[in-house]
Amino acid sequence: MSTVMTSTQKYNELKALVKRSYADENMRNEIWEYITGYILADDKRQIQEDRLEQFSTFLCHEGRLAHIDIVLDATDFDKYTVERRNALVEAIENAWPSPWVSICYGKTIGTDHELNRFFYMKKGAIMKLFISGSKSISKLPEEAKYLLDEHIALGTEFLIGDCYGVDAAVQKYYCSGETPRNNFVTGAKVRSCAEAAKGLTGSTFQYVKDIQMTQDCDQALMVWDGKSKGAGENIRRIKELKKPYRIITEA
């Protein structure tokens, strides 16, 4: 006998889904604020049943909630309509082959742009976080440690290089003895990175591996000194792929 959930139960289940899908507290709060801005009425108290029902579809799928952000120019209506249609196609292609349960609505940015956020369910409950940073940073900021601990609590899979600086600091932070406290890279990721960079050495080898990890990850954490080119390039790639990211600037 199936149990029919009330609106309040669906609302709370959706909140729990967001909580277990986003380890970054700031991002988690922003996503939840964005969703409730759509679901709740203007008084911020009344649940709009039809809109909640759209998001409730996610509760029927296994995995975790994910999103893609695309900012559109809203000054030209005809151009905007075409851009929005193309954005939907692009978002679906980026999410494929995840179960596509499309929820998208716009949020005005300034006077001439609109943020379109596409939500979908990501296959598999394990999030992949790409960690990158500057060679000049040998000690992790407390904010970075906090975020990494949050990801550990959610069972996140870490994708990280083996360079000195932030890479080494992260690995050192999670080693309390002879073995790491968490598996940073799965066997599949080791093979995919190694195959992509096969036969390469030095900076070219690192460059290709970084590209592979930006493609494989769901989110990124960058600890940057604001100057290093390698980390700056990774930030650019993540932005181009429209994947969620956090930058912690450390002088």
Break the fold down into its secondary structure elements and pairings.
Layout: H1 7-21, H2 25-39, H3 49-56, E1 64-73, H4 77-95, E2 103-109, E3 113-122, E4 128-133, H5 142-153, E5 157-160, H6 166-173, H7 187-196, H8 202-216, E6 219-224, H9 229-240, E7 245-249
Structure, explained:
The chain is of the alpha/beta class and 251 residues long. The protein folds into 2 domains: 7-122, no CATH class; 128-249. The chain contains 9 helices and 7 strands; from the N terminus they run αααβαβββαβαααβαβ. The strands form 2 sheets. Strands 5-4-6-7 form a 4-stranded parallel sheet, sandwiched between helices. A 3-stranded antiparallel sheet has the order 1-3-2, sandwiched between helices. Helix 1 crosses helix 3 (49-56), helix 7 packs across helix 8 and helix 8 runs parallel beside helix 9. The radius of gyration is 20 Å and the shape is globular.
Key words describing this protein structure:
251 residues, alpha/beta, 45% helix, 9 helices, single chain, 3-stranded antiparallel sheet
Portion of residues in beta strands equals: 15-25%
Q: Look at the helices and sheets and give the structural class.
A: alpha/beta
Averaged pLDDT = 79
Overall tally of structural domains: 2
Give me the strand/helix succession: HHHEHEEEHEHHHEHE
Total strand segments: 7
Name the shape in a single word. globular
Helix content: 40-55%
State the helix count.
Answer: 9
Spans of at least 5 consecutive residues whose pLDDT stays below 50 are 179-192
